[in-house]
Structure formats: C-alpha cells, structure tokens
Write a structure and sequence with these properties.
The chain is flat. By secondary structure, it is mostly helical. The longest helix is centred in the C-terminal third of the chain and has 31 residues.
C-alpha cells in the first residue's frame, strides 16, 4: 500500500466526467483507489486480481472492466511491465493485469468552470472548490493542525499479530547523507554522494518490498486454506491449518505419555 498513490487517487486524479452508457465517476474513483492500494510510492506495479477489486468496490465484473478500460483511455493508468508481475506470480494462468498510475496527472491541469454554479431555479451557489466541496464559514480557531498521513503506519504499529504469524524484524535504516553532511550542516541538494545514498536507499526499499510480496504470494500459492490473494474468507490468512496443528499437538501429547509410561 502507498499513501502517496492513495492520496493522489482520492484528491488529485482528474477523473473523466460522467457519460451516458459509461460507468459513473464515483465507480471509476473507487476502482482507481483499489488499484492505488496495491501500487508502490511511485504509483507503479499495481496488480490486484479482478476478484479483489470487486471485493473492494462491490461492483460487478463488467463494471470493473469498463472502469479500468475508461481509466486507461483517460491516461490515468497504463499497462505495467509484465515481467514485474511474473516476478511475483510464477504461474502465467494466474497472473492478473498490472497497471502503473499516472501520478503526474492532477486536477490542476484541467480548466475550471467560470462563474458560480446555479440550481434549476437560477439561484447562485457558492463557488465549488478544487476538491469538489463548497467553502464553509470560518468558525473556531483560525488554524488547525494538518492531519497526519502516517495514520496507517501508526495503526499497523499498534496491531497485534495473528497467532502463529512470524514477526518480521524492522531492518536498520540506511544513511541518506554522506559523512560530510550527516550532521545536518551544509547544502545537500547538490551533493552527488548524498543523492547516490538516497537513490540506493530507495532501491533497497523497493527490492525488499518486492521480495516480501513474492514471499507472501508463494505462501498463498502453497496454502490450501486461502485464495491467491492470501485471504481466508474476509480475513488475512496466517497459512496455519488448525486441524493439522491440533493433530500435531495430539501426537506430541501421546508421545510424551508413552515416554512417561516407559520411564515408570
């Protein structure tokens, strides 16, 4: 999941207008958010299965396909490199289509309508803002703190892992500045060594994310309890068969009882 891609899909993506015989703008927005939920911070490598997008949006298969086709026509998504999808999913018959999101496209590129909006009776309404809403009268404090974009990370940090789920240790962060600028002194924007360190750290994060996703996909492929997306019903599968675990515990208790009888 990428906060950058989801923020773009929710607030900045210039969705096409409603047209007769085409999916609604809200349906396309929902499908775009579903794709952004699986993209990296650069908006690339989103390949959720069709069933997963249908589960997210509660839309039919035909509507989801039409939304994807119209988003591609509008230039908001484009086909991803098939080798990236093949690196995660080895079986060709189970590979979904991969998509890259055009994060450089924003609503500011589109011309805004001139003049205030009017109702059917001709009464003027307040001008519509860029986010689709109307300005409200200012009340209370003049300024308010900005909402944090790290709410998802905070929520995940407070989650209790599922039973028998291994906890992955957090790797140490790589340095983002050269030794000369590590103390925060001096200009770093033109330092080539600092730029190389930042690029190496970004490449490392991407490779680790791809390796983790490949490991999760392989675990889901070998698990007989969940689907190809790693879900057991509506919950994330921990790939632990409760029947097999109970049988193993019963065998261990029986072996311990046999050893106890022999020692007596």
């Amino acid at each position: 999941m990428s906060v950058e891609a989801i923020t773009w899909a929710l607030n900045l993506a210039p969705l096409p207008a409603d047209e007769p015989g085409q999916p609604s703008k809200s349906a396309m927005a929902f499908v775009l958010v579903a794709l952004a939920n699986h993209a990296d911070p650069d908006g690339q490598g989103a390949f959720p299965s069709l069933r997963r997008v249908m589960r997210y949006t509660h839309l039919s298969e035909r509507t989801v396909r039409m939304c994807v086709r119209r988003l591609e026509t509008a230039g908001l998504i484009r086909p991803a490199n098939p080798k990236i999808v093949a690196a995660y999913i080895s079986r060709a018959d189970r590979r979904p289509n991969g998509w890259d999101l055009a994060l450089h496209r924003t609503r500011s590129e589109e011309p805004e309508a001139d003049g205030p909006a009017k109702t059917d009776g001709g009464q003027s309404l307040p001008p519509v803002q860029a986010d689709g809403g109307q300005p409200l009268p200012v009340r209370g404090a003049a300024t308010a703190p900005e909402p944090s974009l790290n709410h998802q990370e905070k929520a995940e940090a407070g989650q209790v892992p599922l039973p028998d789920m291994p906890q992955e240790p957090k790797p140490p962060s790589a340095p983002l500045r050269c030794p000369a600028h590590r103390q925060g002194t001096g200009p770093v924007s033109r330092c080539r060594q600092c730029a190389d360190l930042r690029e190496a750290a970004q490449q490392s994060r991407r490779s680790k994310a791809r390796a983790a996703a490949a490991a999760r996909a392989e675990a889901a492929r070998q698990c007989r309890l969940c689907d190809e997306d790693g879900y057991r019903g509506a919950q994330v599968c921990n790939h632990v068969d409760p029947d097999a675990t109970a049988a193993a515990r019963a065998r261990a208790r029986e072996a311990f009882a046999n050893r106890s009888r022999k020692s007596q």
